[in-house]
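Appendix B. One record, verbatim.
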Amino acid sequence: MFEDTLLESSPKSAPTLTRKHWLISIAIGVAVFLAGYFLLPVVSFGVETKVVVAQSIIVAVLVTALALILCYVVADAGRHGFNKVGWFIVNLLLPFVGFVIYLIYSAVKTGDWYRATLPIAYMVEAIIVGMLVLYPLIYTEALPKAQLMTFLAAPPPPPPPPPPPAAAAPAPKIIKRVSAEDIMRAPTVIPKNIAQIKDEPEPAPNAGAVGVVGGVPGGVPGGSFGGVLGGVIGGVLSAAAPPPPPPPKAAAPKRIRVGGQVESAKLIFKPNPEYPPLAKMARIQGTVRLEAIISKDGTIQDLKVLNGHPLLVKAAIEAVQRWRYQPTLLNGEPCEVVTEIDVIFTLAE
């Protein structure tokens, strides 16, 4: 079936593309690949190695195919007596389209349509397959977003642990008070068993105050220095009372929360995230917001994803984990800091 096509040899006639033509076309493709591999990083800064290799391979394959077409047109036109220079210029200015025009022209002149229909069919099939492969990569908006997000969305975070049970409040201690009236009151019935009642001492509201148990009508609550025992005893007791203890020092919190302005001022090492190749090809950009716990020595201990595109989350986490901060001091002591970090991904124009 393929014995008369341009890509295979035929027992009826010698092949149009010889070994010399193949070597020339492959050498041109290799030279184009090497030129793109070494020149693209110089012309466009910040391009990744994978992107440079992919672009160089695509351009090299297209140039190799164009070189094969030019070799075929020159050799076939010379064999049939056509204008070689004219058809060479046409195919050089109109790649692939000029080749189809030449195949139709040569088929009309020679009367052999079989040698033109098969190459044209191969080219149409290659164009259709290439469009099916490149269309989803170029126009990502045409893909079903709902189905795509189900595959790319990050799993939801686990639920928080239940709070610990509240501690039971201690039962209040009941203190029985015995007044002077209870002591002086005569019993109406003589009990069989007489129980001894012992009063528990109460904390005095004022260490220097002296009063009478049960109180005195018209007296001052807590006693008075000019009362029953006299002002001298009250003054001695007041002078002997120890000074009140100083208030306890408030314990410094182990962890505080700060905003983005405070956090950025203490950042001392900030490597930039590496842009994911798939996100760059799909033209995806945006902001990934993370919640981080900065330890006492300035390292990142914990990272939680608040929001952001799934294709950008991994690169943002890997970059922020290497960030370093100055230790945050509270009352002269280092403490942990809870803050939110925004990592912005922007494609260069």
